[in-house]
Amino acid sequence: xxxxxxxxxxxxxxxxxxxxxxxxxxxxxxxxYKTYSLEYNxxxxxxxxxxxxxxxxxxxxxxxxxxxxxxxPAISYSKNSFLNEKYALSRWSDKPSKMIQRxxxxxxxxxxxxxxxxxxxxxxxxxxxxxxxLVDFKHTFTENNSYADFSTRIYFINNNTDEVFFKxxxxxxxxxxxxxxxxxxxxxxINNTFLYDLNNFIQEKL
Length: 206
Prior knowledge:
33% of the residues lie in helices and 35% in strands. It is of the alpha/beta class. Strands 1, 2, 3, 4, 5, 6, 7, 8 and 9 form a nine-stranded mixed β-sheet that branches. The longest helix is centred in the first third of the chain and has 27 residues, at 3-29. It is elongated and about 55 Å long.
C-alpha cells in the first residue's frame, strides 16, 4: 500500500467514525414516542353501573365507522376550525375506533348485566348489535384554553325485530393541560362518562 492509498484509507476511516458517531449522538438526543391508550377507570363503582338490571341478552359490538382523518393512531389537535395537526411524538396505541369498540365490550361485560358481550366479527348469533359512527375525537384549542372533543352516534339494533334505537353522544371537556398528555387525560375522563351513559341508554331500551 503506497502513502497516498494509506492516507485515503485513514481519512475514509476517520470520516466513517465521525459520521456514525454523529448519528448515534443525534439519535440519543431525540425524544422517544409516547404511546397512550383509551381506558376507563374500573376502580370507580359508578363506572360499572352497579345498579344495572340483568338481562339475559347477548350483544355484539362492531368497530366504529369514521373518517380516516379522525380514525388514526396519530393524536390530532386543531387551532382553528379548518386545520387539523398531529402531535409529532405522541400517538394512540391503536385506532380510536378499535379502542372504543374494546372499551364498550369490556365495560358492558364488567357490569354483569348481560348474558355475554362480544366484538367478534364471526357470524355469532346475538340478540342485539351496536353500530357506531365516530364523529369527533380530537384536541381543540381556543384563544385561552383547550378541550377534548368526543362525539359518536350509536345505533342499538334488535336483531330479532330489526328495531333500531338511536342516540348521539356529544362531549366537550377542558383539557388538563394544553398538550397531548392533558388531552389524553380529559378524553379518558369523557370515556368514563360515555360508557356510563351508553349502558344507561341500553338498559332503557331493553
